[in-house]
Amino acid sequence: MHERLPRPSNVDAMDMWVDEAIWGHRLYDEQTPWLCLMEFFNVLVAEHEAGRAFVETGPNTLKYKPKARMHLRNILFNNPKISLIATKYKDNSKEAWAQWFKEMEARKAGVNSDVNFRYLEERFPSFEDFYLVVQFLRRTTIEGENNKRWTSQFVFPYGPDCLYEDLDVKGNSDRRFFARTGELLYLMLTRSGKGPLILDKLQQSVLNKENKFNRLVAALQPKDMSQERTSIREGAYLPYLSLPEYQALADDWLRLLDSNIPKFDVFPHLVNITGLHMIIYALNRAREVLGYREKLTFVIEIVAPKKTIIRELSADCYAEHNNLSKRAVEAYIRKIEETEEWKELNNVPQAIEFLQKKFIWPKDVDELEEDGFRGNTPEQLLEFFIEKAIKRHKQHVDNFHRVWGKEVGFSSRRGARRIRYAPQDLFLKSLVYCVVPKRMEFQEFLEELYDRYGFIIGERQAHKFAQYGQADLQAFAENAKRLEQRLASMGLLRRLSDACAYVENPFGKREEEAG
Amino acid sequence: MTIVKSQWINFLRQYGPIPRNDNMYDEAIHRILQQKKIKPIQISSEYMEELIENFQSESPASVILTGTAGDGKTYYCREIWSYFGGSLDTWESRDKVKQLKLPNSNKTLFVVKDLSELQDFEKKDILEQLSSILQNPDEDKMFLIAANDGQLIEAWKHANPKDNPQIERVKKHIEDLLVNGEKERPGIKLKLYNLSQVNAAKLFPQIVHAILNHPGWNECQNCSLREGDGNNKCPIWENRKRMEGSNDGQLILTRLTDLLELCELNDIHLPIRQLFLLVSNMLLGHPDAKDHLMNCSEAARIVSENKTALASIYRNIFGENLPEKRRENTRVFEALGKFGVGYETNNFIDNVLIFGADDPEFERYYQDWVVNDSYYGANQIYRANQKDYLEGRAEIADDFLLSLRSQRQRLFFIIPKEQEEESHFWRLTAFHYAGEYLNEVYRRAQHGKVSSQITARIVQGLNRIFTGFFVRESDKLILATSGSHSQAKVSRIFEEEISVPKRHGQGVQIVMKNGKPCLEVKLSHLLPAEYLPLNLVRFEFLSRVAEGALPGSFSRECYEDILDFKSKLLNLVERLRLEEGDDSDPNQLTFQIIRRLTQEGTIDHNTVEVNCHA
Fold it and tell me: Could you tell me which residues are beta bridge partners of residue A456?
């Protein structure tokens, strides 16, 4: 059991501290893996500018100042009339600018009242050029066209001048989409000890000011950014000082960053791999609370045209995993029943005090009654609390496994009623780019996927488990064959003969490691 | 009426797709050859001379024969064994490793005819010995080992390469040879022959020739079914005649060899055993026969039941005589099945087949192609089904559609070369451009220049994918990005264009590389060229996109591959810019933003200059 770091002192405003103790503050379903990466970049750049990238002076003391860049965001995402103005004043650039300035003066939000956009006129030869640039940058929006509020639209991270934090339309941080999962990612990578290496690699992409497109985005912003409101963000909490999961995550990041993938192309793969590691992290923390010791495994279905037994097995596996976090929440709370302190409690007020100490709940006695608590024993209070805790858990953290699995293309419902682990092509690509140095024999690849991520795909991996009989093993063998074919059709596999195939990473640099 | 029960036919049957334990294949054939005193089917083996020369020399190299099941490894081993005086008894004994003395070098040759026969510890021992011999050429032992490439790689794991750098070195050497398709590399005296690399299209005509001219056919001389009248002819003999093709310039052989060549060009290898299987099935296949392969008594029965149409050699080529599952699991039929012959068609061909009897426009073709062949073409059953179909009798629709499929398959092998173009012949397959690919690209590029029209089409296809626009541009290759990542569908930042005709170190053309056609793109004298291998699927894909298909159709994997190639080219542009030095103004940013497509289909891009200093 890993030792849990102490709860931060300034969290009393929160409803309770249960999910956070197990998984950290916090994993959040509405923050997609891409937005997790964006939040991470914001933290990294802020800390880098402060001279302490990937350095944690004391556990859970992260304090950083992300940028808001409201000029840029107004121009790109709070600017619906620009195409109208560009068309209407096509041949009169001066008039177009004048009209546009007028429009933005009325519309602008999240900036001081004396802010204007006049500096842009000097920068672009004509309004039309300005319009083309805005159009172009809008098309690079993360996760494409979506319905989120304009302050939650993010331009592609070409460089540090492109990064800004998520805000509401008034300019305040409501932690809606930057809900701290990116902060957890930052802490995990920091604690892996591999931060400096990762930093070095990122210098060529997201940290590089000189990139052409970063400079273009910078050209949309005023030279003097000192008027910008900036706030300090703090409060992130990652419960464990060191875990093998941090190492595994950092190692995979380095493998991807190290390979020959063109620098910005690597981001979608980082997103996928991070998603996978976060899911593994979440499941493992739950399993730890529940006392499971064996290795976490996933039955992976490579989609077949017809239903196979693997689909059932994978769906069962998925369902079991999906349930783990809820069960862990209850188990975690119930652990206090074994303590001496609990056994000595006689009445509800004592129990309240005890629970407040452990879980910062309930806020006060009145609230409890308003909430509907009618019991009069500590046990009843505990049951009530567990119910509340699970209800709270179901709002967000419970969905994490399901939502993130789908977002990175790891799990899906395709062609069936039940969700199971049926990876999509892009996800498989990310795995190959991550796992295969330059080439790797196919059976070895399957074994490597098992060692690193617990994936059971072929019969050799399934064979390790007593519960699979002959028929199952045959199905697993066919499952592996389908993976071979899929990788071959993606150009990632070379078949020498029936029994021999090599997985090839077209961007691999490293010669195959010995053995 | 005397019907001969030919031994030769029984023997030929053994090569067909009968269910049998694969490991015993070679032994079974060999045993029958001995017992029935049949002359073996001889074809020249590609490497036999070379191998014999090696072992005859004064300092022979150890040899590994690899490939897949059916490539002929055991055959080679046995021939070499007997050439150097090894006895048949020893060969057939249970010893897994046999030895004999080589003549001129006085070395002992150890022959392992199948590595997979050995136990793990025995494999370990052999590989350890091999490693030590290879590092020490003075040793007086040599090895000839035959192993599937999969088995070979597996076996090394048992030799614990991690513990022994000597073994690790040999393992890596062999792996490099295998993966790169090489026979030898300096440093280690070992020759690796990968029999999977032998071109099926080269072997096939030899096999057909050897089988058609085998003396075993003499047994048929006295059979009364040989030259029966009308439909009372022996289907086997009929199939043989058609395969000989003396009346049509060997069209079946030519077309089939083309298909096999196209398989190779699509990176599908068919071992020699599969080719024998194909020939045997072609001659003897029938859905109602035992194991779906006829022998003489079956043939007689089928004639008497009037079911000869189903012995059609044209159907048998695609394994239609076999149940679906068996067909899918037999390599050669799986490979040939990918062409979709019988399922694909065009209006012209179907009009001939269905309406040809009544429609004057197609009557001529109908006569030539269908009526003239009363045995496998428009026989009574076909005509009856056709009539019913045209009159709208739904119940027999399935039957007719089935026979339609067979007819299309037949047409593929009988439409003469002169009529290929007017009938849009290659539309009988899933690869409409296959004919052009084979003749105008693959065969042409080997000793000449590929037509610029074809290159232009490929370039246009690439341009449509690179930009995501419906461009009509084939004089230059357009490199555009979306700024963020290469897999984006539409790219609006114009980076560079590469001239197709040679100019200032730039140029795009189709060349041969390692025996396969490739698109070669040169950006500058200062940098090496980039190559896009053009296998059949890619060629088809790019051609279709150039002619109007959406990139998402036909093959999504091709689409992504092409985008990866664009990445490579963009990397090249990046390198060139670094080489040439950047003399741009640091205070200015210049972009070429693609605004739209013009009426003529060219890219309209705006230069946008941003003054960063203001």
Answer: A299
A96 contacts A85 by C-beta, under 8 angstroms? yes
Nearest to B150 among A129, A132, A498 (CB): A498
Residues of A near B (Cβ–Cβ under 8 Å) read: 119, 122-125, 128-129, 132-133, 136, 139-140, 156, 158, 212-213, 215-216, 218-219, 262, 264-265, 267-268, 439, 441, 443, 489-491, 494, 496-500, 502, 506, 514-515
The answer to whether B501 and B509 are in contact (CB under 8 A) is no
- List the domain boundaries for chain A: 25-238
Residue with tokens 């695609």: B318
From chain A, the residues in CB contact with B148 under 8 A are 497-500
Q: In this model, does residue A515 exceed pLDDT 60? A: no
Whether A500 sits inside 8 A of B150 (CB atoms) is yes
Give φ, ψ of B606 to 5 degrees: -100, 135
Produce one character per residue of B558-591: b if its CB has 16 or more CB atoms within 10 Å, e if not: bbbbbbbbbbbbbebbeeeeeeeeeeeeeeebeb
Each domain of chain B, given as residue ranges in start order, spans 7-41+199-337, 48-197, 347-430, 436-611
- In this structure, the strands spanning B141-148 and B108-112 are parallel
**Do the beta carbons of residue A384 and residue A394 sit within 8 Å?**
no
pLDDT along chain B (614 residues), means of 10: 84 87 69 79 83 89 87 88 88 86 86 88 88 82 88 80 81 85 87 87 92 92 80 89 91 95 87 92 95 93 90 94 90 92 90 89 90 82 82 78 89 91 90 94 90 95 93 93 75 91 94 91 93 93 93 78 88 86 79 88 88 77
- Chain B residues lying within 8 Å of A515, measured CB to CB: 161-162
The answer to whether the CB atoms of A139 and B482 lie below 8 A apart is yes
Q: Which amino acid is at A347?
A: N
DSSP class of residue B293? Answer: B
The string of pLDDT tens digits covering residues A318-376 is 999 999 999 999 999 999 999 999 999 888 889 999 999 999 988 877 888 888 888 88
Q: Is B589 within 8 Å of chain A by CB?
A: yes
Contact A497 B149 (CB under 8 A): yes
Q: How many residues does chain B have?
A: 614
pTM assigned to the model: 0.83
The whole-number pLDDT of residue B23 equals 59
Residues A408-432: b if buried by 16+ CB within 10 A, e if exposed: bbbbbeeebeebbbbbbbbbbbbbb
Bridge-based pairing of strands B141-148 and B62-67 is parallel
